[in-house]
Design brief:
Blueprint (H helix, E strand, L loop, with lengths): L3 E5 L3 H13 L3 E5 L2 H11 L3 E5 L7 H9 L8 E5 L4 H9 L4 E4 L4 H15 L12 E3 L2 E4 L4 E4 L2 E3 L3 H12 L5 E2 H8 L8 H15 L9 E4 L3 E4 L5
Parallel strand pairs: 1-2, 1-3, 3-4, 4-5
Antiparallel strand pairs: 6-7, 7-8, 8-9, 10-12, 11-12
Helix pairs in contact: 1-5, 2-3, 6-7, 6-8, 7-8
Pfam family, one: Response_reg
Keywords: DNA-binding, Phosphoprotein, Transcription, Transcription regulation
Protein name: XRE family transcriptional regulator
Amino acid sequence: MCAHVLVAEDDEKQAELIRRSLLAEGHTATVVHDGAAALEAARGLAPDLVVLDLMLPVVDGFGVCRALRGGADPDIPVVMLTARSAEDDLLLGLELGADDYLTKPYSPRELMARIRTVLRRSGRGTGARDGDPVVRAAGITVDPVRHEVRCDGATVDCTPAEFQILLAMAAEPERVFTRRQLLHRTRGFDRASTERAVDVHIMNLRRKIEPDPRRPSRLLTVFGVGYKLTGNRV
């Protein structure tokens, strides 16, 4: 099962550990560090699951969870993380609609196990067979565990940002991604990036996976919107 997970955690080291654990499990991840950014990302990216720290700046985790439950996708799974261990906090989180709750410190393996359980229960997450994190589309194979890309059987060397963009698009072929959505996939690799940087990543990917980069047949531009990966050759 391959899912796109939104991680809202203000501790950057902890957030990076979660992100790496998710990638090793075959998921894609977007990381934000405050509650307002979490709500913006949730609205723009429609993630399959949210890992939500309670002690977030700007808007705390309770406020984020409350807003998510009243938003366009009220059933989005939420796994809450907190340094608080008080029973009242646990009960409030569950009453607001959290699907699971972990108290810090916790092991990354336990968090990944909880995420797998919540995703399986919710029926969310696509793009890979059960037990197989490898994503395949349009003659391209993306293996997030080995961090390998193959195109028509040949190995393709990708930068970390290129890899995350290709993994996201291969997991949902034919879906049109905006530049902003793809930029979120690269957060943590180049925080100074702008949406226009996505165009450069796409151009570089075309050089690597297209028979003729000037006339792309896999990685297509959808004018006025963004990009999509298609298996239909043109």
